[in-house]
């Protein structure tokens, strides 16, 4: 299994790494972030006009909508594994639960403060703070997602971004402990993913 961490990488390099490892069916865990604001677009979503948003727009290998990534705000992650005898809904539930456990631990929250939707998105106080998307080749899965810190002040970008175009229309300010959050997530996933999917 490959373990990778790439913070402040130029877009879309981290997603190209994920795509390459997935196509080769190599199991990995990757925690990453981008060096500048950018938008990643799910594989089945219409590509947005970059000029409209003033930042780079690129496509992910996984599904889902368009996600606005901000430097030193959202921590991105990806991992892959082979699994048989389980439905995609059960896989999403398992993956979302892993991420929920990390959030509960990292922020000392109680279980009832977080809500997991059917698609694996995690909400805190009705604000989406974690989202995941997937791709699948037979029994080999790729999950990509991002986590927004919840201990910061949120503001709305409705004047800039149309919610129908871009997920996460509420964005926190830069995280005070962005690097700490990144390293904590990396440590957590490198322990949990092999434990859950490679016993």
Write a structural description.
It is a single chain. This protein has a seven-stranded mixed sheet, with helices on both faces. It has a four-stranded mixed sheet with strand order 4-3-5-12. It has helices at 13-23, 50-53, 88-107, 178-197, and strands at residues 2-9, 28-34, 38-41, 56-59, 66-69, 75-82, 114-116, 122-124, 127-137, 140-147, 154-156, 166-167, 170-172. The chain has one domain: BirA Bifunctional Protein, domain 2 (2-Layer Sandwich). It is 28% helix and 34% strand. The two termini are 13 Å apart. Helix 1 (13-23) links the parallel strand 1 and strand 2. 35% of the residues are buried. The chain is built from four helices and 13 strands. It has 199 residues and is α+β, with helices and mostly antiparallel strands.
Decide which structural class fits the backbone.
Answer: alpha+beta
Strand content: 25-35%
Radius of gyration: 16 Å
Note the total helix count: 4
What order do the SSEs take from the amino end to the carboxyl end, as H and E? EHEEHEEEHEEEEEEEH
- Fourth CATH level, the homologous superfamily: Bira Bifunctional Protein, Domain 2
Cα-to-Cα separation, first versus last residue: 13 Å
CATH architecture: 2-Layer Sandwich
Biggest sheet record: 7 strands, mixed
Given this structure, which CATH class is correct?
Alpha Beta
**Average of the residue pLDDT scores:** 85
Instruction: Provide the low-confidence segments as ranges.
Output: 158-164
| Helicity range | 25-40%
Counting structural domains, the number is: 1
Extended strand count: 13
Shape: globular
CATH topology-level fold name: BirA Bifunctional Protein, domain 2
Which strand order does the major sheet show? 1-2-6-10-9-8-7
């Amino acid at each position: 299994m490959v373990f990778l961490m790439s913070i402040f990488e130029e877009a879309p390099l981290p997603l190209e790494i994920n795509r390459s490892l997935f196509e080769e069916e190599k199991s990995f865990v990757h925690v990453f972030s981008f060096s500048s604001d950018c938008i990643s677009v799910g594989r089945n979503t219409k590509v947005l006009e970059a000029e409209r948003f003033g930042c780079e727009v690129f496509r992910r290998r996984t599904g889902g909508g368009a996600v606005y990534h901000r430097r030193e705000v959202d921590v991105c992650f990806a991992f892959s594994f082979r699994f048989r005898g389980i439905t995609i809904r059960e896989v999403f539930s398992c993956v979302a639960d892993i991420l929920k456990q990390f959030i509960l631990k990292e922020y000392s929250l109680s279980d009832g403060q977080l809500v997991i939707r059917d698609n694996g998105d995690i909400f805190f106080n009705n604000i989406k703070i974690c989202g995941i998307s997937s791709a699948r080749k037979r029994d080999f899965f790729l999950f990509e997602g991002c986590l927004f810190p919840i201990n910061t002040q949120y503001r709305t970008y409705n004047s800039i971004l149309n919610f129908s175009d871009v997920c996460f229309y509420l964005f926190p300010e830069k995280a005070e402990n962005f690097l700490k959050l990144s390293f904590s997530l990396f440590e957590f996933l490198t322990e949990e993913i092999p434990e859950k999917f490679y016993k």
